[in-house]
Amino acid sequence: MRCWAISDLHLGYKANREALDRMDAYPQDWLILGGDLGETPDQLKYCIESLANKFAQILWVPGNHELYTTSKDPCQLVGERRYLHLVELCRTYGVTTPEDPFPVWPGEGPSTVLVPAFLLYDYSFCPPAMKPKEAKAWARESGVWASDERFIHPEPYPSIEAWCASRIETTQARLDTEIPKDHQVVFINHYPLRQDLVRLFKIPRFSIWCGTKATEQWHETYPISTAVYGHLHMRATDWRGTTRFEEVALGYPRHWLKEKSINDYLRLILPHPPLPDPVPTDPIWHR
């Protein structure tokens, strides 16, 4: 029994949908879906219906693209109402979401809790002391702007950063109270927990839409053995101390090889691999 992870399937692209349709089944295994599966509830439904019978259990967290509300989408829900609508859609198929009890891994290895989380970002992955408005101006100076600013509406929160702060508070409270003693954690979030994992060499200032500094030390505060994320489309394995960080994005069609299948891009999360000796200080790229 194994647990795999992948994110950023971006099923608005025909090539990605066709690759998903050809994906093999792993009927005894679990699958983590790390967000940005599509941009509409219909695309999320398509993904889950394609995979529900291929895995024993699926866990899902939203990315930024699932939160987009565009004029072409039949679903015009925005903000938190949109997110909760997606949660209910997932629950219809038995998929575990950030609003559900944390499942305990039933397979081999140390006792481990899987924690799907929804944290967002607050524009703090930028030079020190910048406020969100200044950070966005700093990003725009380099010609970088995110579609999030047009298509994500944070209602009922006054801003994305306020919504992010609320999600951080809620998640921390659950981590403090719902992790059994002597259990490890596989933490699942669409965004990386640390700014130093954001390596966008061509668009470095896009970092402000990639997470929050509030989570920088969570891998030391909580018993996180592995942190799973996507968003960057820069597949890599990193180690910080004894914590393994796995960026598992498939990405847009230009980010993966068509002669391969999606199966080739699944990342093994559980059972845990042994801790390397010595622990790598550089990323292990999965290009």
As a percent range, the share of helical residues equals: 10-25%
User: What is the β-strand count?
Assistant: 10
If you average the pLDDT, what whole number results? 97
CATH topology: Purple Acid Phosphatase, chain A, domain 2
The CATH homologous superfamily is named Metallo-dependent phosphatases
**Shape category:** globular
Based on CA atoms alone, the radius of gyration comes out at: 18 Å
The sequence of SSEs as H and E is: EHEHEHEHHHEHEEEEE
**Sheet/helix structural class:** alpha/beta
Verbal overview:
This protein has 287 residues and is an alpha/beta fold. The chain has a single domain (3-285), classed as Metallo-dependent phosphatases (Purple Acid Phosphatase, chain A, domain 2, 4-Layer Sandwich). It has seven helices and ten strands. The strands form two sheets. A six-stranded mixed sheet has the order 4-5-6-8-7-10. α2 links the parallel β2 and β3. α2 packs parallel to α3. The protein starts with a strand and ends with a strand. The model has no long low-confidence stretch (mean pLDDT 97).
Ordered list of secondary-structure elements with their pairings:
Blueprint: E1 3-6, H1 14-21, E2 26-33, H2 41-51, E3 55-60, H3 79-92, E4 112-116, H4 132-141, H5 148-151, H6 160-178, E5 184-188, H7 218-221, E6 224-229, E7 236-240, E8 243-247, E9 267-270, E10 284-285
Parallel strand pairs: 1-2, 2-3, 4-5, 5-6, 6-8
Antiparallel strand pairs: 1-9, 7-8, 7-10
Helix pairs in contact: 2-3
